[in-house]
Specification:
The chain is α/β, with parallel strands linked by helices and 444 residues long. It has two domains: 2-342, Alkaline Phosphatase, subunit A (3-Layer(aba) Sandwich); 352-437, Arylsulfatase, C-terminal domain (2-Layer Sandwich). Helix content is 27%, strand content 18%. It has twelve helices and 14 strands. The strands form two sheets. The protein has a ten-stranded mixed beta sheet with strand order 6-5-4-3-7-1-8-9-2-10, sandwiched between helices. Strands 11-12-13-14 form a four-stranded antiparallel beta sheet, with helices on one face. The longest helix is centred in the middle third of the chain and has 28 residues, at 229-256. The radius of gyration is 21 Å and the shape is globular.
């Protein structure tokens, strides 16, 4: 069976038609109707680079070393020695390809977050390469190709990357595994073609929206359209509809060329976007709008079904390999959910963990100067079917610890915390379980 794994950046779970009828995503909705939907998929660390590293390695941030975004002054990047799902696919004779945003290598210098990934081990088994590090110029993107040549484009990145994906599919000669990483709907929000923006007139703001527009890490958001949240969300939804339209192009090609039934199509994202909920923008916080991501397995004769089992970023790689009938490397920490998708006996998680760490040189230095390991700080969050516990020990040294307990079954908008000593201790024990499992020095 072939594989196409498509993930869009900063696309939250409820910004898709199957969960929110305001969002126009007919192609994704059809894939969901015909395939297997994970209703409770979460980003293990809701920011670009850490999720991507978890996705590819099946390991948690402390184990794979990517605890925050790969950016200037930060010692975080994917090790060329880690075994990624793509390395395993290559070893199993797949024609492998990667298109779009990579964001797993250290920047080359200066203030830019962008980075060139040279041919060889750093590309982790991907033979076809059409990618860049991190760049948010969605209408003037650039890429480095398989041979390492830089290519500059004047076209919306989603459309262009889909063009490249279709050419890749036309040139394949055997079984293939293609990963496509669209950057939109990541900010700046006003990049999608007008034909998608004009789909949205009236929108409904979530009841937990507070017009403050701060990032959880303390910065004011700079991407709000005309200082207007409604306009910003229209643009965001427009980008999502544009992603959907281009996914439809890929599905159409597969069907027209008798490849659909032999190709597993996975739709997901790396993290969400707060879009004003709880007075926040962006990601990197434990609320559902940030950590909740779509996850759909379709095509490949996968039958229609859905599940509320909890699944995290580290579980994607083992599940992909399991669905393809390939042995999962022993050092992958995630769980193989393929038996669940196939309708076989399966035991899931009682809880999962999501994580955020100090993310700047200044904050990291504040811990080091006081003899502390910065990786033991930031926040950790455990999620069960009905409850969520978040403990925040601060992004900088000396910040006061904060504890938040939510009843997400009865208060899914998380607009209030609860007082329940017994439940608090129960979830603290769940957190201790994950901290021990991942060799995490965070103190509950």
């Amino acid at each position: 069976m072939n594989l196409i794994y498509i993930f869009a950046d900063q696309w939250r779970r409820d910004a898709v038609g199957i969960y929110n009828k305001e969002v126009i995503t007919p192609n994704i909705d059809t894939l969901a109707k015909d395939g297997f939907v994970f209703n409770r998929a979460y980003s293990t660390s809701p920011v670009c680079s850490p999720h991507r590293a978890c996705l590819l390695t099946g390991k948690f941030p402390i184990q794979n070393g990517v605890f925050t975004n790969c950016k200037p002054g930060i010692d975080a990047q994917l090790s060329e020695d880690d075994i990624c799902v793509s390395d395993v696919l290559k070893e199993n004779n797949y024609e492998t390809g990667y298109i779009g945003k990579w964001h797993l290598d250290k920047p080359d210098g200066g203030d830019s977050w962008d980075a060139y990934t040279p041919p060889g081990k750093r590309r982790h088994g991907f033979d076809f390469w059409y990618s860049y590090g991190a760049d948010d110029n969605h209408n003037t993107p650039h890429y480095w190709n398989t041979e390492g040549k830089r290519i500059d484009i004047n076209q919306w990145s989603v459309e262009h990357e889909t063009d490249v994906a279709l050419r890749f599919l036309q040139n394949t000669k055997g079984k293939f595994a293609l990963f496509i990483s669209y950057n939109p709907p990541h900010s700046p929000y006003d990049s999608a073609p007008y034909k998608y923006k004009k789909l949205y007139d009236d929108i409904t703001l979530k009841e937990n929206v507070i017009p403050k527009f701060m990032h959880h890490t303390g910065e004011m958001d700079k991407n709000l359209i005309s200082n207007n949240l409604e306009d910003t969300i229209r643009e965001y939804y427009g980008a999502v509809s544009g992603v959907d339209d281009n996914i439809g192009r890929i599905v159409g090609y597969l069907k027209d060329n008798n490849l659909y039934d032999d190709t597993m199509i996975v739709i997901s994202s790396d993290h969400g976007d707060m879009l004003g909920s709880h007075g926040l923008m962006g990601k990197y916080v434990w609320h559902e709008e940030s950590i909740g991501i779509p996850l759909i397995f379709s095509g490949g004769r996968i039958g229609p079904n859905q599940s509320n089992e909890l699944i995290g970023s580290t579980d994607h790689a083992p599940t992909l390999l399991g669905m393809l009938g390939i042995s999962v490397p022993e050092d992958m920490q995630g769980k193989d959910f393929s038996p669940l998708i196939r309708g076989e006996r399966f035991e899931g998680y009682k809880s999962i963990i999501t994580e955020g760490f100090p993310n700047s040189t200044e904050r990291i230095k504040s811990f080091e100067e006081n003899g502390e390991n910065f990786l033991d700080y930031g926040w950790r969050c455990v999620v069960t079917q009905d409850y969520k516990l978040a403990i925040h020990r601060g992004y900088s040294f000396g910040e006061e610890k904060q504890v938040f307990l939510y009843d997400i079954k009865n208060y899914p908008l998380e607009n209030k915390t609860i007082e329940d000593t017994k439940k608090l201790e129960e979830l603290k024990q769940e957190m201790r379980y994950w901290l021990e499992l991942t060799s995490d020095g965070f103190k509950v």
